[in-house]
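Consider this today:
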Amino acid sequence: MGREIVLRLDRGTAEDLAATLHKKSEHIETGAPVAAVSAVEAEGLDTLLHELNHALGRPCVSGCKHDTAESPRP
C-alpha cells in the first residue's frame, strides 16, 4: 500500500477549508489572535478530520456510520 492519502472533498468543503487555513495562517504569521471558526466552518473541518482519520486507519468514534472493518490500515 502506498504512503499517499487521497481525500475527496466537495467543492464547498474544499473552499471553506482553504479559506479557513489561509485566515488562520495569516493570524499565526502576524502573531494576531486567531478568531473562532463559524459553525459551518467547524462542521466542514470536523467532516474533513473524520475522513482523514479513516484514511489514516485510526479508530473511529462510537456511532460512526463507517464500518471499522472497511477502514484502511497502513
